[in-house]
Amino acid sequence: MEIRKTGILLRKLRDLFKDGARIKDSLQAYIIPHNDGHLNEYISARDERLAFISGFTGSYGTAIVTETKAVLWTDGRYTLQARSQMDDNWSLFTEGLADSPTQSGWLVGELSGGRGQAARVGCDPHLLSYTAWATMASHLHQAGIHLVPIDHVNLVDLLWADQQPPPNSRPVVPLPVKYTGKPSKCKVEQVRASMLEKQADVLIVTALDEIAWLLNVRGSDIDFNPVFFAYAAVTQADVHLFIDEAKLSDAVRDHFSDEGLKVTIQPYDRINAFIADQVSRLNSTSNKVWVSHCSPYSQMLMVPEKMRVLEVSPIALLKAVKNETEAQGFVNCHLRDAVALVCYLAWLEGQLAGGHVVTEMSGAAKLLQFRKEQEDFVGASFETISSAGPNAAIIHYNPTKESDRQITTNEIYLCDSGGQYKDGTTDVTRTLHFGTPTQFEKECFTRVYKGQIAIATSIFPKKTKGMLLDPRARQALWEVGLDYQHGTSHGVGSYLCVHEGPMGISWRVYPDDPGLQEGMFLSNEPGYYEDGKFGIRLEDIIRIVPAKTPYNFANKGFLTFETITFVPIQTKMLLPQLLTKEEICYLDNYHRMCRDKIGPLLQQKGKTDAYEWLCRETEPLGQCLI
Questions:
Q1: What percent of the chain clears pLDDT 70, i.e. is strictly above it?
Q2: Fewer beta carbons within 10 angstroms: which end of the chain, N or C?
Q3: What is the 3-state secondary structure (H, E, C) of 83-114?
């Protein structure tokens, strides 16, 4: 992969630190988060400021540039990718490692002492959440360093200038109630009930997936994510949508009317004026404005502290707990998605056996072709991670023309992919070897699979925090001194973002985790990665359902998981002697369900080769031990 030299860009950025025409007082450092004005994980090309300045294209990271240094923080998913993409002007820290400082800690070490006046660290306040800003500002303040909002201009945009892509403004489309299960008017009423509980007169909504879910509409302003750029505000009397009106067709307006919802349309850039109007109109002693602490700091600045409700948006939890229609949609789309993936894996095995050349990119393109054949398919839910051999060790690897590697029978192949369907969002990972895996690869694969079974079969009280389950996924790896540097589980949107909060299963603390509840859908994806050699990850989507326990201590109510992904696990990658009888029984039952559920669908479509592959891959492992 060609690495772009960033020295000239960094020099120009540092020159802006002392540009009196644009910066009131000089800066000693500037923070560049991988965010947009809505704090999305995945962002549009126009908002890829971090990639522009550093060369790193991952979906998670923060850069800090001082007068002499440039440093980037990311997590374990992207460490190898960042190393390969950044040049020698940059240093890298991996969050969560013992030898990696925090961003504020590093700044204190770099900027404290030896100055006649307090150091100033600048950041665009539209790109950092209130929580992140307040936390960092507090740490820096203790060391006499000021975190300064540079809200009138983004310094990276000044460098990007005419090369910066234009903003997306694609049409918004309605999503019928047959997919959503609930009209938007009912959703708004639920939100208003939550507002009454918190005595909030107005709710400001900045998260794009929350707006799309609330109003039962979808868009395509961000690749792979069916969302659109907008803000929303809910009062007890009105719903306001701040959006480029050109995106709204008569069909969308009719949709609002049909769902019994009156929506006032205002220009996208009027949101701040609206907040100011609300603050001036309300009684500062008794009225409240609900702005989630996950919202941009710039908007929080507009609401006096005593008027703020600083809790996670009520929409986040409402969206996370799927209604019956959404839940059934998840089940249905995962069956269709399994058809596509089984067709692909059968095709791939046949191609390799026949001596044909398939690369990571051509394989991903073929998988997309199979998905396009499925009913209600809209597009991929993220860029397919089609990775062979050492590329599979790069956790969120995306093949490029420079890195595209041939898939062969000599090394592991990891495929992490998903689809956006009108009735749900899929995300599934399978790791396979089309030749002869090594004993160590088989041991690692088996221990990863043991972790996946441990999560899938967990029984736990209602509202258990996800991080309490995380060690179950890692235990079989920990027993031999292995681990992985990413979370075990994330929530999944209903024809929305493939990564959805506020819950998850991880070693990280999810500050807004409401506890695991019936109706939530999450991923189940332990893994293991050997840098420069191979990577293993197995990922299913699991549904939280009531557990059938003989007892019910303190009337807590107990829950468990139901797997809704039905794609075979490659048994030749397993070491049966490392599996318990219960685990072998679990695998055989799972494979029986794969054959029973997916087999008839393949036969209906005349996919004979894929059906035969499915039958071979789902032979009971238990019979092999007799």
A1: 98
A2: C
A3: HHHCCCCCEEEECCCCCCCCHHHHHHHHHCCC
- Do the beta carbons of residue 338 and residue 598 sit within 8 Å? yes
3-state secondary structure of 511: coil
φ, ψ of residue 450 to 5 degrees: the values are -60, -40
Question: Over the stretch 315-346, which tens digit does the pLDDT of each residue have?
Answer: 999 999 999 999 999 999 999 999 999 999 99
φ, ψ dihedrals at 426, nearest 5°: -115, 155
Backbone angles phi, psi at 308, to 5 degrees: -85, 140
Q: Are strands 120-123 and 29-33 parallel, antiparallel or unpaired?
A: parallel
Q: Decide the pairing of beta strands 91-94 and 358-359.
A: unpaired
Phi/psi zone of residue 39: left (φ > 0), alpha (ψ -120 to 50 degrees), beta? left
Q: What is the pLDDT of residue 103?
A: 96
Q: For 72, phi and psi rounded to 5 degrees?
A: -125, 135
How many CB atoms are closer than 10 A to CB 68? 8
Amino acid identity, position 188 = V
d(CA 374, CA 422): 11
**Which tens digits make up the pLDDT trace of 343-394?**
999 999 999 999 999 999 999 999 999 999 999 999 999 999 999 999 999 9
Q: Measured between alpha carbons, how far is 121 from 110 in angstroms, rounded to an integer?
A: 11
What sign does the dihedral 108-110-114-116 (CA atoms) show?
Answer: negative
Pairing between β-strand 239-242 and β-strand 263-266 as defined by DSSP bridges: parallel
| Beta carbons of 213 and 169 less than 8 angstroms apart | no
Name the nearest CA neighbour of 601 among 328, 343, 426. Answer: 343
The sign one gets for the Cα dihedral 389, 395, 398, 401 is negative
DSSP-based three-state secondary structure for 443: helix
64 band by pLDDT with thresholds 50, 70 and 90 = very high
Whole-structure pTM value: 0.95
Chain Cα centroid distance, residue 219? 18
The Cα 299–Cα 490 span in angstroms is: 27
Tokens linked to 276 = 């100011």
Phi, psi of 120 (to 5 degrees): -120, 125
Structure tokens at 130: 């209130």
Could you tell me the strand order of the sheet in which 263-266 lies?
Answer: 263-266, 239-242, 231-235, 202-205, 289-291, 308-309
Query: In this model, does residue 63 exceed pLDDT 90?
Result: yes
464-479 in b/e burial notation, b at 16+ Cβ within 10 A? bbbbebbebbbebbee
Q: From the CB of residue 372, how many other CB atoms can be counted at a distance below 10 Å?
A: 13
Q: Residue 522's closest CA among 506, 495, 503, 546?
A: 503
Q: How far is CA 507 from CA 26, 473, 486, 489, in A?
A: 39, 11, 8, 10
User: What's the burial of 109, exposed, middle or buried (CB within 10 Å: 0-12/13-18/19+)?
Assistant: exposed
In b/e form, how buried is each residue of 548-572, taking b as 16+ CB within 10 angstroms? eeeeeeeeeebbbbebbbbbbbbbe
User: How far is 584 from 183, CA to CA, in rounded Å?
Assistant: 44
- Residue 175 CA to residue 408 CA, distance in Å, equals 42
How far is residue 11's CA from residue 375's CA, in Å, rounded to a whole number? 52
Phi/psi of residue 572, each to 5°?
Answer: -70, -10
